[in-house]
Amino acid sequence: MATLFDQIINREIPAEIVFEDDQVLAFNDINPQAPTHVLVIPKKPIATLNDITEDDLELVGRLHLTAARIARERGIAEEGYRLVMNCNEYGGQTVFHIHLHLMGGRRFTWPAG
Question: Motif Histidine triad motif: which ranges (predicted)?
Answer without folding.
Answer: 97-101
